[in-house]
């Protein structure tokens, strides 16, 4: 059985990790490179870095912080935010990323997904989605709509239809980020996560809402996800007690979730 992955998510503003709730009210946490070093030492499986203001500010991604993080971690490292072209993707990969996450720009210019997959391989291209439950209606048969620009702009795209198209364009992974659950510690939205997992043949990553070990286990089993993005549970100041990667992995293994175990001295 394939092992499931724990992915630490960094929402980065000016080189620092922040933590939001439902894409609003970001609070400062720590320098991105310092937190990356800490989580790498604790044997996180992967890290994803979003420059969350790049698109809104219409500027290139913060390559200096990408480099700073990339030179201190040696696990798969995904980067997104402000990527508008294959040249931008190349710059991010040169700066130390292994994968590129495309979200709002994929909606505005779907061809960028195909161009990235053709240039660097599908394994390098991650389609990240911001999804919100809006109810079943004309054009939204799944009841979940795609939003962009930090959940501020509705697109009229059905979430399940969009991820199918993303896979056809060449995306090698799909992130399902629930706007409704983001930062709430109420658990992943298993309905849309499972619907996406059933609709595509590439790995699906659950995101938004993990507050307990049971939430993570549910996303990796009932939700059909291959990986789970975690952030609040690891480092949010809103939590009375954060959990380490070692503790999370041990608890997930005890629940029967196949994980790469924490290794003493690893």
- The largest sheet has its strands arranged as 1-4-5-6-7-10-11-12
How much is the radius of gyration in Å?
Answer: 17 Å
Q: For the terminal residues, how far apart are their CA atoms? A: 22 Å
Task: Work out the number of β strands.
Answer: 12
Mean pLDDT: 93
> What count of domains describes the coordinates?
1
CATH class categorisation: Alpha Beta
Helix content: 25-40%
Low-confidence stretches: none
Element order: H for helix, E for strand: EEEHEHEHEHHEEEHEHEHEHH
> Helix segment count?
10
CATH topology: TIM Barrel
How are the SSEs placed, and which strands pair?
Layout: E1 5-13, E2 16-21, E3 24-31, H1 32-41, E4 46-51, H2 63-70, E5 77-80, H3 86-94, E6 99-102, H4 104-108, H5 111-120, E7 125-133, E8 144-148, E9 153-158, H6 159-169, E10 173-178, H7 190-199, E11 204-207, H8 213-220, E12 227-230, H9 232-235, H10 245-254
Parallel strand pairs: 1-4, 1-12, 4-5, 5-6, 6-7, 7-10, 10-11, 11-12
Antiparallel strand pairs: 1-2, 2-3, 7-8, 8-9
Jot down its keywords.
single chain, 266 residues, alpha/beta, TIM Barrel, 12 strands, globular
Concise structural overview:
With 266 residues, the protein is an alpha/beta fold.
Give a verbal description of the structure.
It is globular, with a radius of gyration of 17 Å. It has a single domain (5-254), classed as TIM Barrel (Alpha-Beta Barrel), CATH 3.20.20.70. It has helices at 32-41, 63-70, 86-94, 104-108, 111-120, 159-169, 190-199, 213-220, 232-235, 245-254; strands at residues 5-13, 16-21, 24-31, 46-51, 77-80, 99-102, 125-133, 144-148, 153-158, 173-178, 204-207, 227-230. The protein has 10 helices and 12 strands. Helix 1 runs parallel beside helix 2 and helix 6 (159-169) packs parallel to helix 7 (190-199). The model has no long low-confidence stretch (mean pLDDT 93). It has 266 residues and is α/β, with parallel strands linked by helices.
């Amino acid at each position: 059985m394939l092992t499931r992955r724990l992915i630490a998510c960094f929402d980065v503003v000016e080189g620092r990790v922040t933590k939001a709730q439902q894409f609003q009210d970001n609070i400062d946490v720590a320098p991105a490179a310092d937190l990356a070093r800490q989580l790498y030492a604790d044997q996180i499986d992967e890290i994803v870095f979003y420059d969350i203001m790049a698109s809104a500010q219409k500027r290139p991604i913060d390559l200096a912080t990408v480099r700073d993080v990339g030179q201190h971690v040696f696990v798969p490292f995904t980067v997104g935010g402000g990527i508008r072209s294959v040249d931008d993707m190349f710059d991010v990969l040169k700066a130390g990323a292994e994968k590129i996450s495309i979200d709002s720009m994929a909606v505005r210019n779907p061809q960028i997904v195909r161009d990235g997959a053709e240039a660097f391989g599908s394994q390098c291209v991650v389609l990240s989605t911001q999804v919100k439950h809006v109810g079943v209606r004309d054009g939204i048969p799944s009841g979940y709509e795609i939003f962009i620009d930090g959940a501020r702009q509705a697109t009229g795209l059905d979430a399940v239809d969009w991820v199918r198209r993303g896979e056809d364009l060449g995306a090698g992974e799909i992130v399902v980020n629930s706007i409704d659950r983001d930062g709430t510690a109420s658990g992943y939205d298993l309905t849309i996560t499972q619907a996406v997992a059933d609709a595509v043949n590439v790995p699906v990553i659950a995101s938004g809402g993990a507050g307990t070990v049971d939430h993570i286990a549910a996303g990796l089993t009932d939700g059909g996800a291959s990986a789970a993005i975690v952030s609040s549970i690891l480092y949010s100041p809103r939590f009375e007690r954060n959990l380490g990667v070692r503790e999370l992995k041990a608890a997930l293994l005890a629940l029967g979730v196949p994980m790469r175990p924490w290794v003493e001295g690893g």
